[in-house]
Structures are given as C-alpha cells and as structure tokens.
Amino acid sequence: MLNLLNPIKIIVLLTFLAGVFFLEKSKRDNKLLFAIVCVCFINEVGSLILKYNKLSINSLFTIDVVLHHSLWIILIGRHLSGGKMKAILLGYLIVSALNFFFVEGMDNFNYYSFVSGALVYTILFTYISYKKLREENLGFFTSNHMILLFSPVMFFLGLSFMFCFKSHQLTSTLLFGDVKLYTFINYSVNIIYYTLINIYILKERKQTHV
C-alpha cells in the first residue's frame, strides 16, 4: 500500500506549490530553484507510479539525483567563472554517466553519484563562504541568498554519511523504538532542506512586493 501521508512527500508537495504560486521566476537563481523543486516533485510522483505498478524505482532515483545535483552545482557555480563552473559540471556528469553504465549500473541506485555530487557542492559552498569572509562581505551571510545556498548542505551531508558506507547494517541500526538510523536522518535532513527552501521563497516574495 502506498504511503501518501509520508511527511517527506507532503513537504515536497507543499514546496512545489509554494514554488508555483509564490516564487518570483524572473531571476535566474529562482528559475534554477524552481527547476530543482520540479525535479523533486516529479521524482516523488514517478516513484509512486512505479511502486503502484510494482516496478523498480532505482533508475528513477539515480536520474533524479544527477539532475538535482547538477542544478545545484549550476546555481552555486554562478559565483565562479563560467569556465570553471562548466568544467566542474562536466566532470560530475562524466563521473555519473560512467557510474550509471559501467560501475553501479542502471538497475541499482547509484550511491557514488549522490555522494560525489554532494561533495562537489559542499566544497564549492565552503570555498565561496571562505572567499566572502576574506572579502569581509558579512552581508552575504545574513542575506536570503545565503539561505538558498545553505539549504541543501545538511541534506547532502546527512545522506552522504548514510550512502558512502553502503552498509545495510549501519542504516538499519535502531535508534529508539522502531526508528532506524536511516529513517531518522532522512526525515531530519529533508525537513531542514525543504523548510529552508520555503523560507527563501517566502522571503523572496516579501522582498518582491515591498
């Protein structure tokens, strides 16, 4: 039976609706964010359809990861020169393609593609934050744009911690009651991720209508 009341599915739906009705899409960053939200929403709908028909969701999730991570890399890469951003993005896409076709394969969820993309984004976020700090651009750290750039960081770090070991024993560890380590981290980082995105969207709307 499909769990339509899963809190992650609900918050993805609410974030998608917030993006549709409240996000100002004339800005390039907001267009990229809306594309990210659409990818996440389509992934949730697609996974429900595949599960209902008792089909594998692994390839769908892998494609979602590559699209999702690539869009975030493009978004944060706007703080770099065009050549550097294109090289980084191309490198990630090549690694993901090789992993999809020759390493972890099309029939399995591609953990390495998730972790490598998350690592790229986290390194870029750290580099840009350090650069802004050296420039004494303290306003950057209190801006709405900082909320946007930070929003996927905990999501990337939390799930990468789970995925990099590829250990079912680790992810199935019971924390309390019937709650597994993977479930706790997955719910926590997703709630943080989408909450920050919604905060960004609402603050953007207020700034636009001032």
Would you kindly provide a brief summary of this structure?
This protein is mainly α.
Quick tags:
single chain; 210 residues; mainly alpha; two-stranded antiparallel sheet; 9 helices; 2 strands
| Total number of distinct structural domains | 1
* Average of pLDDT: 93
Structural class: mainly alpha
The largest β sheet comes out as: 2 strands, antiparallel
Order of helices and strands: HHHHHHHHEEH
Describe this structure in words.
The chain is mostly helical and 210 residues long. A two-stranded antiparallel sheet has the order 1-2. Helix 5 packs antiparallel against helix 7 and helix 7 runs antiparallel to helix 9.
Write the topology of this structure.
Elements: H1 7-22, H2 28-52, H3 58-77, H4 82-103, H5 111-134, H6 144-150, H7 153-163, H8 168-171, E1 174-176, E2 179-180, H9 181-208
Antiparallel strand pairs: 1-2
Helix pairs in contact: 1-2, 1-9, 2-3, 3-4, 3-5, 4-5, 5-7, 6-9, 7-9
